[in-house]
Design goal:
The protein is of the alpha/beta class. The protein has helices at 15-22, 75-86, 107-120, 132-140, 155-172, 180-193, 201-210, 243-249, 282-290, 309-319, 388-401; strands at residues 2-7, 28-31, 40-44, 47-51, 64-67, 72-73, 96-99, 103-104, 197-199, 215-218, 256-264, 267-269, 303-305, 307-308, 323-327, 337-346, 349-351, 364-371, 405-409, 417-419. The protein has a 10-stranded mixed beta sheet with strand order 9-7-5-2-10-1-11-15-19-20, sandwiched between helices. Strands 14, 16, 17 and 18 form a 4-stranded mixed beta sheet that branches. Strands 3-4 form a two-stranded antiparallel ribbon. A hairpin with a 7-residue loop joins strand 19 (405-409) and strand 20. Helix 2 (75-86) packs across helix 6 (180-193). The radius of gyration is 21 Å and the shape is globular. The model has no long low-confidence stretch (mean pLDDT 97). The chain binds guanosine-5'-diphosphate, 6-O-phosphoryl inosine monophosphate and magnesium ion. The site of guanosine-5'-diphosphate (GDP) has 21 residues, from helix 1 and strand 3.
Length: 421
């Protein structure tokens, strides 16, 4: 069976830490979408590490890790990640498998990402500039190169053909940047990538499932960044929701058991696009400061606000969430008052559904207030020890969503996770 762990907001919910925590319970951790736009932070032996494309199970000796076909892979960033992982004494080749169907991010994809953002001007997506959009466009446009293609004799010819296509596009966007250095680095990284276990991912995973092995599919980004169900066009270019697991790994829907949704106790977003509960005041600043809300991939300050139950409820619906993990609850420790968005006021009407096009309308969040717990929870280890006032906050969220918060994360550390019975 396959369990899924994914983000329910706009990314950075703390997925990396939670996957690392659950990893020993699974035989395989598999990434099914996204690419180096992701930044998953883990603490290993109290040392921070940020993973972008390698699954967050890599630090566990007995866990296999698969980069699935739904991922777009940048070999250069991958090589750097492997070097980082090696610093922890991990033999990264031993437990890491890559699907031959995984699409490659080319240097010109990165250039196209940048050119497209410049062309959009004020309407830019706020992309991570990792080439994600252009790489997925080449996948659906049936032009892209895949990991398995590296082993083909005509690979360089195929590469040049695609680069020429990209160069025409770049010229039409009036974008001129010398990519020679990127390209050299890229081909070096391709040689490095060839030394890995490149597999037919769908047979690999289904055979393991047949043997009774367990899989945790690790989502990247968040549900509100899903290309179909997110705040389009301010989204990423993949299906971040649970349905993406089937297409991104080649597993059938009936193999999926639990869908574990991760949400912060508040809400953040990095990049452009609608964010109804965003706070532009001191409280927003406080959330950013206390939560150290700066992008793990780009270092950009994250926009901060209160938890949005309208969006969360929508995310639970499209994902079929069966269990919730609430992260960064400790960030709310010092606040006197907490707010929870229960509805959107649009044209004087209260709605509890996420509208089709959030950018075209003024949305005023309707809040319910809660008393803050004003207790340092970072050292607590059991549900019974949690402040009573905090239980009110969590119970309200459970009831609204109809799904239970089953774990509360009270700090970035590996051991800072409390199971709620
Ligand atoms: P991901 O992309 O979902 O894996 O999340 P990121 O790594 O981008 O961002 C989450 C940040 O919050 C990281 O810096 C984590 O170390 C940190 N973090 C995770 N869980 C907690 C928590 O419960 N409390 C606090 N204070 N920090 C946390
Ligand atoms: P993790 O896995 C937060 C955002 C970007 C931008 C939009 C499109 O760490 O949660 P892209 O580069 O995908 O074309 O950017 O999506 N974005 C993320 N925001 N966490 C992420 O990943 C993100 N990956 C992309 O900021 O708004
Ligand atoms: Mg992140």
């Amino acid at each position: 069976m396959v369990d899924v762990l994914l983000g329910l907001q706009w990314g950075d919910e703390g997925k990396g830490k939670i996957v690392d925590y659950f990893a020993p319970q699974y035989d395989i951790i598999a990434r099914f979408q996204g690419g180096p736009n992701a930044g998953h932070t883990l603490y290993v032996n109290d040392k921070k590490v940020v993973l972008h494309q390698i699954p967050s199970g890599i630090f566990h000796e007995n866990t296999l890790n698969l980069i699935g076909n739904g991922v777009v892979l940048d070999p250069v960033i991958f090589k750097k990640e492997c070097d980082k992982v090696a610093e922890f004494g991990v033999d990264f080749r031993k437990n890491l498998y890559i699907s031959e169907r995984t699409h490659l991010i080319l240097p010109t994809h990165r250039a196209l990402d940048k050119a497209s953002e410049i062309a959009k001007g004020n309407d830019k997506i706020g992309s991570t500039l990792k080439g994600i959009g252009p790489a997925y466009m080449d996948k659906t446009g049936r032009n892209g190169l895949r990991v398995g293609d590296m082993l083909d004799k005509s690979f360089t010819t195929q590469y040049i053909r695609l680069r020429l296509k990209h160069e025409k596009l770049l010229t039409s966007l009036n974008f001129h940047e010398d990519i020679t250095a990127w390209e050299e680095e890229w081909f070096e990284a391709i040689e490095f990538l060839k030394t890995f276990k490149i597999v037919n991912g769908e047979y690999f995973i289904n055979e393991k499932l047949k043997e009774g092995k367990s899989v945790l599919a690790e989502g990247a980004q968040g549900s509100m960044l899903d290309v179909d169900f997110g705040t389009f066009p301010f989204v990423t270019s993949s299906n971040t929701i649970s349905a993406g697991v089937c297409t991104g790994l080649g597993v059938a829907p009936q193999k999926i058991r639990d869908v574990i949704g991760v949400t912060k106790a508040y809400c953040t977003r990095v990049g452009s696009g609608p964010f109804p509960t965003e706070l532009h005041d001191e409280t927003g600043e406080e959330l950013r400061r206390i939560g150290s809300e700066f992008g793990a991939t780009t270092g950009r300050p994250r926009r901060c606000g209160w938890i949005d139950l309208v969006a969360l409820n929508f995310a639970c619906m499209v994902n079929g969430v069966t269990k919730l993990v609430m992260t960064k609850a400790d960030v709310l420790d010092p606040f006197d008052e907490l707010k929870v968005c229960t509805a959107y006021k649009i044209n004087d009407k209260l709605v509890k559904a996420v509208p089709f096009q959030m950018t075209r309308m003024a949305i005023e969040p309707e809040y319910k207030s809660f008393k803050g717990w004003k207790t340092d929870i970072t050292a607590l280890q059991s549900a019974a020890a949690l402040p009573v006032v905090m239980k009110d906050y969590v119970t309200f969220i459970n009831d609204y969503l109809g799904v239970k918060v089953a774990w509360i994360s009270n700090g970035p550390g590996r051991d800072q996770l409390i199971e709620i019975q």
